Amino acid sequence: MGDITSGCTFTRLVPALGQSKYYHLIIETAATADTADTITIPATTYQGSIACILGFDEDTCVQEQPTWVVSTGVITLGGSGNSNKTRVYDVLMHR
User: Fold this and answer.
1) What is the value of pTM for the model shown?
2) Structural domain tally of the chain?
């Protein structure tokens, strides 16, 4: 278990008209991500708070639900003990 934030790619997707009160933050981990690793969403870069997260093991497309702490923006990877797998998370953020 460790903080793998530095090895992640963050992509912010904002609705075209910008009228939604939400936006999507897509997070892709390195291929070395393990269950119980953590990712910290940098609050200074991505404004808002986490509404919900949908996560997948990229190799098998199996859904893995992470846990998170809204006040700190720390996500703990879910899964069933899968080691060394790329994970992709769609984080719905409040603006």
Assistant:
1) 0.86
2) 1
